[in-house]
From TrEMBL:
<comment type="similarity">
    <text>Belongs to the HypE family.</text>
</comment>
<feature type="domain" description="PurM-like N-terminal">
    <location>
        <begin position="42"/>
        <end position="150"/>
    </location>
</feature>
<dbReference type="InterPro" id="IPR036921">
    <property type="entry name" value="PurM-like_N_sf"/>
</dbReference>
<dbReference type="InterPro" id="IPR036676">
    <property type="entry name" value="PurM-like_C_sf"/>
</dbReference>
<dbReference type="InterPro" id="IPR010918">
    <property type="entry name" value="PurM-like_C_dom"/>
</dbReference>
<feature type="domain" description="PurM-like C-terminal">
    <location>
        <begin position="165"/>
        <end position="315"/>
    </location>
</feature>
<dbReference type="InterPro" id="IPR016188">
    <property type="entry name" value="PurM-like_N"/>
</dbReference>
<protein>
    <submittedName>
        <fullName>Hydrogenase expression/formation protein HypE</fullName>
    </submittedName>
</protein>
<dbReference type="Pfam" id="PF02769">
    <property type="entry name" value="AIRS_C"/>
</dbReference>
<dbReference type="InterPro" id="IPR011854">
    <property type="entry name" value="HypE"/>
</dbReference>
<dbReference type="GO" id="GO:0051604">
    <property type="term" value="P:protein maturation"/>
</dbReference>
<dbReference type="Pfam" id="PF00586">
    <property type="entry name" value="AIRS"/>
</dbReference>
Length: 339
């Protein structure tokens, strides 16, 4: 814990004065120190070469601490993974907080520690940021925004335009773990073992695949809000392709499946945070899958579908007993505040 003479965040900590500097000096700058951040300038001076990816995201998860992580590492991993889906090597992140008055300083410190370790694991640096405090009742403990940049891998050819009939769709791991980790806490569900969020950084896994398989990886995407179903439906519509999915091939933890059944939720629409979908050329799909199985982030990877010429703009799911249904986008809000 930082050595501070206060226990909770007050409006004064967002004023830009003495309290703000105490909070930042003993927290952000000390814990996340690096040569660029230590300049303490209004912006960051970066060295980037070649084609570069940029992404930004905001995180409003409730509760802010959940089995398997907290909002701090979620914010780092989320933006790191968005950059990785572009075929980029994430390098630098900005980190901004909107804190509700009354947040315990210990909770803020724990979030910062999670940010630090997530950055170390992903190999990125926090180089600039901002902190604001809002009045009690005008926020929900803490909101986090991260933005990031990184150079595109020279072998990456990631674009929906590259998708071709016959492509196989690979999912990197078990579906619905993050959303159900959040919901099991909210609903007080108890199982033999705790459901854990799958939040993690995927950049090392993705870059290794791109280095080995290059342009045979046509598209990468992470099925966060709206889940696998919504993401694939969006791709089918925008690319005017048909997609066939096979329910029996979807990997899912048994307790996650039980939680979905208890709450009446379709796991295909539940958010994920450490998962990606890859559209891969048919000729290399088995090799990509075998490579993923050797990676910690891909040990449960499966081929779940195929791009087809039939039924353009439609996603069709074949059930375990052979029935078929049309998959649509999430029509409304299935799960509130999970990422």
């Amino acid at each position: 814990m930082p050595k501070l003479d206060f226990d909770v965040i007050t409006l004064g900590h967002g004023s830009g004065g003495v309290l703000t500097n105490k909070l930042l000096d003993s927290g952000v700058f000390d814990l996340l120190s690096n040569d660029i951040l230590d300049e303490r300038h209004d912006g960051a001076f970066l060295e980037l070469h070649g084609k570069t990816a940029f992404s930004t995201d905001s995180f409003l998860v409730s509760p802010i601490f959940f089995p398997g992580g907290n909002i701090g590492e979620l914010a780092v991993n989320g933006t790191v993974n968005d950059l990785a889906m572009c075929g980029a090597n994430p390098k630098y992140l900005s980190l901004s907080f909107i804190i509700e008055e009354g947040l315990p300083v210990k909770e803020f410190w724990d979030i910062l520690v999670a940010v630090k370790f997530a950055c170390q694991k992903a190999g990125v640096q926090i180089v600039t940021g901002d902190t604001k405090v809002v009045e009690k009742g005008k926020g929900d403990k803490i909101f986090v925004n991260t933005s990031g940049v990184g150079p595109i891998h020279p072998k990456a050819k990631i674009s929906a335009k590259n998708i071709a009939v016959g492509d196989k769709i690979i999912i990197s791991g078990n579906v619905a773990s993050h959303g159900m980790a959040i919901m099991s806490v909210r609903e007080g569900l108890e199982f033999d073992s705790e459901i854990q969020s799958d939040t993690t950084n995927l950049n090392h896994t993705i870059l290794s695949l791109i280095e080995q398989f290059g342009e045979n990886i046509h598209l990468l995407t992470d099925p966060t809000r709206g889940g696998v179903a919504t993401v694939l439906k969006e791709i089918a519509q925008s690319s005017e392709i048909g997609i066939d999915l096979f329910q029996k091939d979807f990997p899912m933890d048994e307790q996650v499946a039980s939680a979905c059944e208890l709450l009446g939720l379709d796991p295909l629409y539940v958010a994920n945070e450490g998962l990606f979908l890859a559209f891969v050329s048919e000729s290399e799909a088995d090799s990509v899958l075998a490579t993923l199985h050797e990676d910690e982030n891909g040990k449960n990877a499966r081929i779940i579908g195929t791009v087809v010429a039939e039924h353009p703009k439609q996603v069709i799911m074949e059930s375990a007993i052979g029935g078929k249904r049309v998959i649509s986008m999430l029509p409304g809000e299935q799960l509130p505040r999970i990422c």
